[in-house]
Amino acid sequence: MKQLQKLSKFLSDYTSIVVIAIAIITFFVPQGMGWVNYQLFTDPLANKITCQSIIIGVIMFSMGLALTTQDFVILAERPFDIFIGAIAQYLIMPFLAFSISRILRLPDAIALGLILVGCCPGGVSSNIMSYLCGGDVAFSVGMTTVSTILSPIMTPLMVSLLASGTKISIHGLPMFLSIIETVIVPVAIGFVLNYLFGNKKKFQEVQKMMPGVAVLGLACVVGGVISSQGAHFFQSGIVIFVAVLLHNSLGYLLGYGAGRLTGMSTAKKRTISIEVGMQNAGLATNLATTTAQFASTPESAIICAVSCVWHSISGTLLAGWFAHLDK
Predict the structure, then answer these.
(1) How many other CB atoms are there within 10 angstroms of residue 281's CB atom?
(2) Cα dihedral across residues 214, 216, 219, 224: positive or negative
(3) Contact at 8 Å (CB) between 144 and 121?
(4) Residue 279 bridge partners (DSSP)
(5) Which residue has the higher pLDDT, 254 or 289?
């Protein structure tokens, strides 16, 4: 058990390296991660449930295991901070994605993928980055929790709204069901288990391994997408990478600006910067590859996959830079 916990800490500390390594290996040996895309069954709205969907569920389950009733008490005690965070989360990144798509004149399918990334909630890895950079971890967990709880409504709603300018028809119900299946249910199960057994020593030992499980899960999601879409990464040109870099970097900048504008402390400004800039691109990738209505636009998964890799790398770099400033 101790060795597994050490491995988990190593994976958490070197998230970007692990993700990059899996991405590079899969790019040259795509069949190695082909199993991630294996379809298990379909849900009532014809969304594909794949191994990737299960992996996303495991990642979100690991987040649920870290949630306690105290986290929700903190949310109740800090409504203004969480409100600002939620507003920033679902305004900055979605409209930033829409604006970048228009400015760079991205093809409709690619633009849809970037908008989808922008409309997803914050990822679990953002909590780790907030911890590493001396941010406000409770605030980070609170933002991730609230944005995740709101995601079944906000993600389909914002995608439908912002994608209306494209020639692609988007309906929110399939995304709503997919997010319930892969995000809300696993988080709820993890939270309930933590509530019931959180004071048990053996359970606490298992909890210490979950960050590593989440990192491995993220690496597998990235590997699975590269396995199916990697060959197309460079067919759309450098514009995809420019779009992802602009979206992510401006998200960090505007998130920090939102914290500064509302008079937040340095720790909170760092946290809201990372929470806004780092999206759950793994969820976006899963939606783009498994939701029925995205079947006609496979290109949208490409930019989601690139975002998934880059957000992990840039988040680690930003957290390291923030930590360096303290020294």
Answers:
(1) 32
(2) negative
(3) yes
(4) 122
(5) 254
Task: Please give the backbone phi and psi of residue 167, each rounded to the nearest 5 degrees, phi first.
Answer: -90, 10
Closest CA to 118 of 139, 142, 92: 92
Residue 160 CA to residue 165 CA, distance in Å, equals 10
- Looking at residue 88, its pLDDT comes to 92
The encoded tokens of residue 252 equal: 């960090």
Separation CA 201–CA 191 (nearest Å): 17
What is the amino acid identity at position 262? T
> Where do we find the tokens 């840039």?
314
Give tens-digit pLDDT for 236-270.
668 889 999 999 999 999 999 999 999 998 989 99
Positive or negative torsion for Cα 316, 92, 271, 275: negative
Q: Alpha-carbon distance 207 to 54, whole Å? A: 19
Residue 182 contacts residue 286 (beta carbons within 8 Å) = yes
Give, as one character, the DSSP assignment of residue 184. I
